[in-house]
Write a structure and sequence with these properties.
The complex is a heterodimer of chains A (448) and B (494). Chain A is an alpha+beta fold. Chain A is built from 15 helices and 13 strands. Chain A starts with 13 loop residues before the first helix and ends with a helix. In chain B, the strands form 2 sheets. Chain B has an 8-stranded mixed β-sheet, with helices on both faces. In chain B, helix 2 packs antiparallel against helix 3, helix 10 crosses helix 12 and helix 10 packs across helix 13. Chain B is globular and about 70 Å long. The chains are: A alpha+beta (448), B alpha/beta (494).
Chain lengths: 448, 494
């Protein structure tokens, strides 16, 4: 954390360099053999030194790409560069209507994130995306987030600011040789906002151009409320950042051996993993997307690794547990249950010791902190009644009490057995083995 | 007591013949007597000093193993952070600021048992050659109170020359240790860049700033050099190597067979004849001691001053940006109606002195888009040429020598309104900052015209700091036997 105290000096964070190289390699980039940091000079209260240590013309990673898929079509996003810099503090402007510095009564600065390493990944212009531009932009941001998360370099929580996007948009007429003037929308902080901000800018710029107007090169602010953008600082009155090599830091020269060592330890990347998982679990594209969006991929994989069938593992995480997470307002992974515990509950179901209804009670118990699945089963006395004698007695009792339904089954309306099974489950307070009960009912009523 | 060397004081304290408290008290008394005329200190920490001294005495009584300077008092340049004393860099913008941390140099002084008497005056943010740019006071040269003590570390040089402290710290960005040492008749060393830590040194020009020692003799300077130098992981530009054997070199001054190069470019117009006379005599002395003296040309040195005044202000313009009234130091105009930007501007206008503003503007201009290549970029190329000149010279000779300064101490006020004249004081010292090599100034006599001290500069390759001490010790020994006492004894009594 940096307060810019007189006399204080920066030191390069070696782990940040390693993460930058990991990200660069995963983005198919070249890794600089030698690069320097530079100072970007400008005055702002949330920047304690009034300059930012960044990289200027010598980024650590450059010339890469990332493939993303949109509606079955693959787009190759060129990566211009990925460079390291330090984060600034965070300003909160209090009072005023916009939450921006203009019109605010006063401002607060939180320096806790100032000096924290940050990687800025800059794409090349993504050309000819036409009406799919908003989707391509969103798909890229999504894929990049997945990638960085898989590499363990950041928790990439956009809502907390650990991943932020600046979105550039320009239009050119079909067949034109020169790109149009671009605008840059700053600090777009959700994937949905990326898509919306591009859509808004495309339409806004098209409107201006169709009316014979001229696009002003400028930075713009995004408004979450209505999805619009509005002008910020004009580039025409832009700052001169007076970049020069940071004299307090020595150049970074990652050895080729180190780079190769990092390459060798890259994890399976999201795209490859998706292909593998989709095939192994027999998922449709939509099912896979839902799993990823729910943040359940790791959890399901761990549950499968702990012995559960993929379908069952997915069912528990995507239904029962997702509901609980939503109700509690936490992420799936933050629930107080482990993949191994989910696998254990499913193992009890597979062994016939629990049915789905009982299993849900076990989940409830584990999530309530009552202990491991086995402890909850014991503690709550949750066991399937599969003692044939006791079950047969129940079957006979239920047939006697539900003469109407029993007659229908005898007459061949097998579906009516459901009501009888339900009555058995009710009478046994859920502990009967529903499948076996149904078999016995059909047997007794001459339908098997 | 106060006339003893640091090594002697350390030995007397170690043997129990005296205590650190007694030695410290003697120096505090001296400060009380002469400080009204010298004005070397911005802050005298009498109580803290006596506490530190008592602590060293206690540690020794408990049998702790202490270094050769344990218990010896020192004056500390006000550019190093100290968590128990203010650190102002002689600027109004930091008035009253007490840092929450100690500089590495400060930490190491304390670890070596040195007793910090207080913080010394300097040119504001170390920008100047006379200490007249201090926002607080003008320091006098103990040889002649109407003259400057050099700068930027003029408080430190004056304190040592006035016997207010046997040792002092300084920082050298373009000559700020060597030039004050030369004009006050003491020893001042600029170590190899990266040899001493900049952590906690309030930056002027990061690629040039180098902490170094002041003392009244070569051995004391070496002892202090050894005490606070060496690798520091908190300074990325710190060199991860053992400190060169400077103390051993200072003890065995010897130039027999040594190849000495006289820099051809540092003579002629602008050089006081008394300075050149003492320098030429010293060259003859070195030859008589067995050195092989040759003339060496370093043509790029001619452009050192010009390129220095692009690089140093450029870095300063960025380094000094942080004094923006937001987190510490002076804040002007914050009456609830003004924006942060206005408060920053008002504070900086009120808090910085004219020389600091001049350099910030110069540096801002030199880094500006469209001018960068012509100014900062070109200056960096010159810097490379200077380094190459040194490299070429050091294939022919072991050390280079020159006068430390073109003139002796000039009268207070004489160059205050003439920045160019002021900048010329660092003509001979700047190349070593640009190249990052080691250089020392050692007294070599009094100029004929004004009876004021002249300094000899000895420059050695990077990481060959010991060579500076070896030659300086030989010169010191030979000259003191010729004079029959150290040069400083010829200074008028205060």
């Amino acid at each position: 954390m940096c307060l810019g105290l007189p006399g204080a000096l920066p030191v390069v964070n070696e782990k940040a360099i390693e993460f930058a190289i990991r990200i660069g390699l995963a983005l198919n980039c070249e890794i600089a053999e030698w690069c320097r940091f530079a100072r970007k000079n400008y005055f702002y209260p949330d920047m304690p030194k009034d300059f930012q240590i960044s990289q200027y013309d010598e980024p650590i990673c450059f010339d890469g790409y990332l493939d993303v898929e949109v509606e079955g079509e693959t787009y190759r996003i060129g990566i211009e560069r990925a460079h390291l810099e330090e984060d600034t503090g965070k300003s909160t402007h209090v009072g005023g209507a916009t939450g921006r510095i203009h019109g605010a009564d006063y401002s607060l600065v939180d320096y806790n994130r100032s000096g924290i390493p940050l990687i800025e990944i800059v794409t090349k212009p993504i050309e000819a995306t036409e009406e799919k531009a908003p989707l391509v932009a969103r798909a890229y941001a999504t894929e990049l987030r997945e990638l960085v998360r898989a590499l363990g370099a950041s928790d990439v929580r956009m809502e907390e600011g650990s991943m932020r996007c600046d979105v550039n948009v320009s239009l050119m007429p079909k067949g034109a040789a020169e790109w149009g003037t671009r605008t840059e929308t700053k600090n777009v902080n959700s994937l949905r906002s990326v898509e919306r901000s591009v859509r808004f800018e495309v339409e806004r710029q098209a409107g201006v151009l169709d009316a014979g107007g001229r696009i002003v090169q400028e930075t713009r602010h995004f408004h979450e409320g209505d999805g619009s953008t509005s002008p910020g600082r004009s580039k025409e009155e832009a700052q001169d950042y007076r970049y020069f090599p940071e004299p307090d830091l020595v150049p970074v020269a990652p050895s080729r051996a180190w780079v190769e060592e990092i390459r060798a330890t890259l994890p399976e990347l999201p795209a490859a993993r998706r292909v593998r998982v989709k095939a192994a679990w027999s998922l449709t594209d939509e099912e896979l997307r839902d799993v990823i969006n729910a943040g359940a991929l790791d959890l399901i994989e761990e549950t499968v690794a702990a012995g559960a069938a993929p379908g069952a593992a997915r069912k528990w995480w995507m239904n029962e547990l997702s509901r609980t997470a939503t109700a509690r307002g936490v992420e799936l992974a933050a629930l107080p249950i482990t993949a191994a515990q989910v696998a254990r509950i499913q193992a009890l179901v597979d062994a016939g010791e629990l049915n789905d209804k009982l299993a849900r009670k076990v989940f409830e118990g584990v999530l309530a902190g009552e202990g491991t699945p086995d402890e909850v089963v014991a503690g709550r006395g949750l066991k399937v009644v599969s003692d044939e004698g006791a079950l047969l007695a129940l079957v006979d009792q239920v047939i006697a009490e539900n003469a109407d339904a029993a007659r229908k089954v005898r007459d061949g309306k097998v579906a009516a057995a459901g009501a009888l099974v339900g009555a058995i489950m009710k009478a046994s307070r859920g502990q009967a083995d529903a499948g076996r009960a149904r078999e016995l009912i059909l047997e007794r009523l001459g339908q098997s | 007591m106060i006339f003893k060397t640091a090594a002697e004081l350390g030995a007397l304290i170690a043997s129990g013949e005296t205590t650190s408290v007694e030695v410290t008290r003697a120096h505090l008394e001296r400060i009380e007597q002469v400080e009204g005329r010298v004005n070397a200190f911005l802050h005298v920490a009498a109580e803290r000093a006596l506490e530190q001294a008592a602590d060293v005495d206690r540690r020794r009584a408990e049998g702790e193993e202490l270094g050769p300077l344990a218990g010896v008092p020192i004056a500390h340049k006000d550019v190093f952070t100290t968590k128990d004393m203010p650190t102002t860099c002689a600027s109004k913008i930091l008035e009253g600021w007490v840092p929450p941390y100690d500089a590495t140099v400060t930490e190491r002084l304390r670890a070596a048992g040195l007793v910090i008497l207080g913080k010394t005056n300097m040119d504001e943010f170390a920008m100047g050659s006379s200490t007249e740019n201090s926002a607080y006071q003008v320091t006098s040269n103990p040889w002649d109170l109407t003259r400057i003590p050099g700068g930027s570390s003029g408080g430190s040089s004056a304190a040592v020359a006035a016997y207010e402290a046997p040792l002092a710290t300084g920082t050298d960005t373009g000559g700020s240790i060597r030039q004050p040492a030369a004009v006050t008749g003491i020893v001042g060393m600029k170590p190899t860049y990266g040899g001493s830590s900049r952590y906690g040194l309030v930056a002027f020009a990061s690629s040039l700033d180098t902490p170094g020692p002041f003392a009244r003799n070569v051995l004391d300077a070496a002892l202090l050099h050894e005490a606070f130098s060496g690798y520091d992981p908190r300074d990325s530009t710190s060199v991860d190597e053992a400190v060169p054997p400077v103390v051993a070199a200072a003890r065995q001054g010897d130039v027999a067979g040594l190849r000495v190069g006289v820099v051809k470019e540092f003579a002629g117009e602008g050089y006081q004849s008394g300075v050149l006379n003492r320098f030429n005599e010293t060259v003859e002395l070195l030859e008589s001691l067995g050195a092989k003296v040759v003339e060496v040309s370093c043509p790029a040195f001619t452009y050192a001053l010009a390129s220095y005044y692009l690089i140093a202000p450029s870095e300063a313009s960025s380094n000094l940006a942080r004094f923006d009234a937001m987190r510490y130091g002076l804040r002007v105009g914050d009456d609830g109606t003004r924006s942060a930007e206005e408060v920053m501007a008002l504070t900086r206008a009120a808090g910085f002195g004219p020389e600091v503003k001049r350099r910030i503007i110069l540096g801002t201009y030199a880094l500006s888009s469209g001018y960068y290549d012509a100014y900062y970029g070109k200056a960096q190329q010159v810097r490379t040429l200077i380094t190459r000149d040194f490299e070429a010279a050091f294939t022919q000779v072991d050390v280079l020598i020159s006068p430390t300064t073109p003139t002796t101490a000039f009268p207070i006020g004489e160059r205050a309104d003439d920045p160019m004249a002021m900048y010329l004081a660092d003509l001979c010292t700047i190349p070593s900052n640009m190249a990052g090599n080691a250089a020392i100034s050692v007294p070599c006599g009094l100029a004929d015209e004004d009876n004021l001290p002249v300094g000899l500069q000895i420059m050695a390759p990077a990481l060959a700091d010991d060579r500076c001490y070896r030659v300086a010790a030989a010169v010191e020994t030979a000259l003191e036997s010729r004079w029959s006492s150290p040069l400083l004894t010829k200074a008028p009594a205060l």
